């Protein structure tokens, strides 16, 4: 960092120490604007990063979030891509330091994911490390006791999306939450919960994550079972048996195993209907095995419509 920038940060810190948070924030924005207009993007980025970091440490999260959003705008104007490791890690570092329940997280997620979609290989869903970051933070909010069920459901829907589109490290975070939910509702069929990651990852044709989710879930739940072939058979959980058999079929060639999927669907159709999984499984049959069964255009209540407008 240049001497000029160092002095600017020192003056900014002095205003913060004096409690002049608004003045410090606005002054930093004004100076950054000058750098951006002069296309001195490196200086603008350094100033925004240091300023946001100082504001976060002083719990001025709203002002810090504003600077982080500005930082993303600078990335876009400069033409930096998410493949620029240093730029992405600085963004992750700042957002990680914000409270998990910070109201700006949705705006930050939208801005950062949209920015990442401009990089080759990320056009469809955005960067998986950024998704992991937001999913990991939001799922912790869902686990808190001080919010009502409706809020939990809304936050979980967003957290789940990010975790599904995240990294391999997202899988245990996602599944551990589902395991805890299954244990808290031991009178219901745990297969409805395992179906979530299995179907979601299957929609992405990510069989590695499907298998990992199943392994972690079955290891985590506390329920009696017996080994039947390659699956753990649960006499009280027919949906859980179905999902395991589904995973077996998904690991095979879709071209040669479509009829096995159809037989599995026919056998468990009434169970799937009772568990409100009929539409998502029918959609999977169409999407994965090219089977027209039931109302397969109805994507159901899970996540077949992964990116149906969340980031628009």
From TrEMBL:
This is Golgi to ER traffic protein 4. GO terms for biological process: post-translational protein targeting to endoplasmic reticulum membrane; protein insertion into ER membrane. Belongs to the GET4 family. One of its GO terms (cellular component) is TRC complex. It comes from the Eukaryota.
């Amino acid at each position: 960092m240049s001497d000029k920038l160092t002095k600017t940060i020192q003056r900014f810190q002095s205003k913060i120490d004096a409690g002049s948070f608004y003045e410090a924030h606005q002054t930093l924005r004004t100076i950054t604007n000058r750098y951006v207009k002069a296309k001195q993007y490196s200086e603008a980025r350094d100033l925004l990063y240091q300023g946001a970091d100082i504001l976060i440490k002083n719990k001025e999260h709203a002002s810090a979030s504003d600077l982080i959003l500005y930082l993303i705008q600078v990335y876009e104007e400069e033409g930096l891509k998410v493949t620029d490791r240093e730029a992405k890690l600085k963004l992750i570092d700042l957002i990680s330091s914000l409270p998990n329940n910070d109201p700006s997280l949705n705006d930050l997620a939208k801005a950062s994911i949209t920015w990442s979609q401009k990089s080759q290989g990320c056009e469809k869903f955005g960067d998986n490390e950024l998704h992991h970051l937001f999913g990991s933070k939001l799922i912790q909010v869902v686990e808190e006791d001080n919010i009502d069920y409706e809020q939990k459901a809304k936050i979980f829907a967003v957290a789940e999306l990010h975790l599904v589109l995240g990294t391999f490290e997202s899988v245990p975070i996602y599944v551990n939450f589902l395991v805890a939910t299954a244990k808290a509702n031991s009178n219901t069929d745990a297969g409805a919960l395992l179906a979530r990651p299995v179907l979601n990852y299957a929609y992405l044709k990510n069989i590695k994550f499907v298998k990992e989710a199943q392994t972690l879930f079955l290891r985590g739940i506390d329920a009696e079972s017996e080994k039947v072939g390659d699956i753990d058979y649960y006499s009280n959980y027919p949906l859980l048996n179905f999902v395991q058999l589904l995973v077996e079929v998904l690991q095979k060639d879709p071209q040669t195993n479509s009829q096995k999927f159809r037989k599995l669907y026919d056998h468990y159709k009434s169970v799937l209907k009772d568990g409100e999984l009929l539409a998502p499984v029918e959609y999977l049959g169409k999407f994965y095995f090219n089977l027209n069964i039931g109302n397969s255009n109805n994507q159901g209540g899970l996540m077949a419509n992964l990116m149906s407008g969340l980031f628009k």
